[in-house]
Specification:
The complex is a heterodimer. By secondary structure, chain A is of the alpha/beta class. Chain A has one domain: Rossmann fold (3-Layer(aba) Sandwich). Chain A is about 35% helix and about 25% strand. The chains are: A alpha/beta, B mainly alpha. The structure holds adenosine-5'-triphosphate (ATP) and magnesium ion.
């Protein structure tokens, strides 16, 4: 297999004396569909923050596309093709939904047809009608879609979706899964963090399970689902869905 | 959804953005030329020199408010010490006039460079800390700059400095007329620059980081560098606005160069007018400064500061998007 698009080795993130993550090793191959599961507070978002650069881990290295980016600021990683959405939506308020998508296009892959590309992505997530609306006026659900749209409009090499489907209806989950599957078919590697089990099981080619900041399983979906340890820490206490 | 529109439908239906944006820029450019032409006509026809002195102050505030808004409005970093930059501009020009009788363009260029450097230094040291610490640091900057001037005898120290700036060119029709035209040209240039920032990718990136620095970073915006650039541009503009004062007044002192009133006005005008677009600072400055000039005969400057402060608080509390925001709400549209 070719060199992985993303390699995390020995990453450890502490908040004061509290170790929220690690040490964690993780490899993501090109075009792969990786699901990350784990109970609340197990360090999934923290791991994504270390990968995207919004946190600087105390230990370990992050190598993206063959380049050690551990000390690179988030914008440089984004420009290299690492895209993420936020679990708690962070819309660019004070501008329209369309402009929200133009920001990453401006910075990462400016082109003359930027607006057309933005419109196409807005359509695919069902936000086309909201294109000219102020982002602050969107519903919580629409904000999640905007998060996803803003992350994938730049055709990244790796897309990390942090609970992009929370609160969506079954039909909308299917829509988002179709979008992500299509993206993956074009060679984009996708990391999906999700509590919605059937979605992550259906989508992923491999699943990693985190528990108190450590990887406790890393295998094919069926194998992870059958893992007694995973069942104990995760399915056992999972009452949310 | 049966009536779901496709991207293409909307793309075709929506008004062609580029042509209409181009048209708006053309109208704006014509407006700028019109304002400058009006200035020329007025300086040739109006007899009362008081108009020119008062007009200079009002237009200077348009420049100051516009410069402040590049950082305070677009990036959302409230600089509480705009007079530090303005004062540095004044004293850069004063130094050059005293040392070598520098002509106005030289002073303006030097003041702009000094203001940009000071802006970079301030940004470099303070932008890593957000919120209240940034505000405190900008206030400290005024005290520092003023203290430095107080202790430089060559610049007149605390008692001020009388200067003999070069006279206005003959075609200008007199020093007050000339200074008014200079300040008008500066203000128009600033407003045009501010508008350009606003409609460019830079403006979009600034709005993005104002909304969420983390999300902007993850969208590829080099937030720290962008904030530094905004600090430098804003600092340069504020200092440039101060440089002509030496040629306008011929006497300068730290009290006026670093005045609290100017700081307060520079902040209040964009906040009252609306800090999201270039229109706000212009509107706020014209309104507030005109009222102040008209009332300065009757009320003291302390009362003036008090009134501005109260109006400012009222706007921050009730209409955070200023007059522009109120108008947009009333007409039900968000203009560009
Ligand atoms: N900035 C921070 N400061 C202090 N503690 C933090 C910080 N961010 C996360 N934590 C803690 O680190 C742990 C892991 O949090 P994280 O957000 O990564 O969990 P998660 O797996 O994403 O959970 P969820 O499924 O609820 O999103 C939690 O105990 C959390 O309280
Ligand atoms: Mg999380």
């Amino acid at each position: 297999m070719s060199e992985p698009i993303l390699a995390v080795t020995g990453v450890e993130q502490r908040f004061g004396p509290f170790r929220a993550l690690g040490p964690v090793d993780l490899v993501l191959h090109r075009g792969e569909r990786l699901g990350i599961i784990g109970p609340n507070g197990s360090g999934k978002t923290t791991l994504i923050n270390c990968i995207s650069g919004t946190l600087r881990p105390q230990q370990g290295r992050v190598v993206f596309d063959g380049v050690d980016v551990t000390d690179a600021p988030p914008h440089r990683r984004a420009r290299m093709g690492l895209s993420r959405s936020f679990q708690i939506p962070k819309p660019f308020t004070g501008m329209t939904v369309l402009e929200n998508l133009l920001v990453p296009i401006d910075q990462i892959c400016p082109s003359g047809d930027a607006e057309d590309r933005a419109f196409a992505v807005l359509e695919s997530v069902g936000l086309l009608r909201r294109a000219d609306h102020e982002a602050a006026g969107l519903s919580q659900l629409e904000l999640r879609k905007l998060e996803l749209a803003r992350a994938l409009v730049v055709q990244p090499k790796v897309l990390v979706a942090d609970e992009a489907m929370a609160g969506l209806s079954e039909g909308e989950i299917d829509d988002v899964l179709a979008i992500l599957t299509h993206l993956s078919a074009t060679g984009i590697a996708v990391i999906m963090i999700e509590h919605i089990m059937h979605a992550v099981m259906r989508f992923s080619t491999r699943i990693v399970c985190l528990e108190t900041g450590r990887v406790i399983a890393d295998a094919a979906p069926e194998a992870v689902a059958a893992d007694p340890l995973v069942q104990k820490v995760y399915f056992g206490e999972q009452t949310r869905h | 959804m049966s009536s779901r529109e496709t991207a293409m439908d909307l793309a075709v239906r929506r008004p062609g953005r580029s042509p209409s944006a181009g048209r708006r820029s053309l109208v704006f450019a014509l407006g700028c030329v019109g304002v400058l032409a009006l200035g020329v006509v007025l300086t040739r026809t109006v007899e009362n020199p008081y108009i020119f002195f008062a007009g200079y102050v009002v237009i200077q505030y348009v420049a100051v408010a516009t410069g402040w808004n590049v950082l305070g409005g677009y990036a959302g970093y409230i600089n509480f010490g705009p007079t530090a930059f303005y004062g540095v501009g004044v004293y850069t020009a004063a130094f050059l006039v005293k040392a070598m009788g520098a002509p106005l363009p030289v002073s303006i260029a030097a003041a702009g460079a000094a203001g940009a450097l000071l802006g970079l230094a301030m940004g470099w040291m303070t932008l890593r800390v957000q919120g209240v610490y940034f505000a405190i640091a900008t206030i400290a900057l005024v005290v520092m700059a003023e203290t430095v001037v107080h202790n430089i005898d060559y610049l007149g120290g605390a008692s001020g400095l009388a200067l003999m700036p070069p006279q206005a060119p003959a075609w200008a029709g007199g020093q007050p007329q000339f200074m008014l035209m200079v300040m008008l040209a500066i203000a128009v240039a600033f407003v045009a620059a501010a508008r350009w920032i606003e409609i460019s990718a830079m403006g979009r990136a600034l709005r993005a980081l104002k909304a969420s620095e983390v999300a902007a970073e993850c969208a590829g915006v080099p937030t720290f560098r962008l904030k530094l650039i905004a600090c430098a541009i804003s600092g340069a503009m504020l200092a440039i606005a101060g440089a002509p004062y030496v040629y306008y007044a011929s006497f300068i002192e730290p009290g006026t160069a670093f005045s609290l009133a100017l700081s307060l006005n520079a902040i209040a005008m964009p906040l009252i007018g609306g800090k999201r677009s270039w229109v706000g600072p212009v509107l706020g400055a014209l309104l507030l400064a005109t009222v102040q000039q008209a009332a300065s005969v009757t009320i003291s400057s302390e009362l003036n500061i008090l009134v501005v402060g109260v109006v400012l608080i009222a706007f921050v509390a009730v209409a955070p998007d200023g007059i522009v925001g109120i108008v947009e709400k009333l007409t039900g549209r968000r203009g560009a």
